[in-house]
Amino acid sequence: MKIEVKMERLDYILSSLSYHIHKKGKHNIHSPFVYDLITNVFEDHGEHAEYKALDKVRRNLLNDDNVIETVDFGTDAKDKEFITYRASVKKLTQSRSQTVRQSHLLIRLVKHFKPGTILEFGTATGLGCIAMALSNPKAKIISMEGCASIASIAETQISNLNINNIELIIGNFNNVLNDVLEKITALDLVFFDGKYRKIAILDYFNHCLAKSNENSVFIFDDIHASIEMEEAWNEIIQNQSVHISLDVFHIGILFFNKGLSKQHFILKY
Question: Which domains does the chain have, with CATH numbers?
Answer without folding.
Answer: 2-63+97-266 (3.40.50.150)
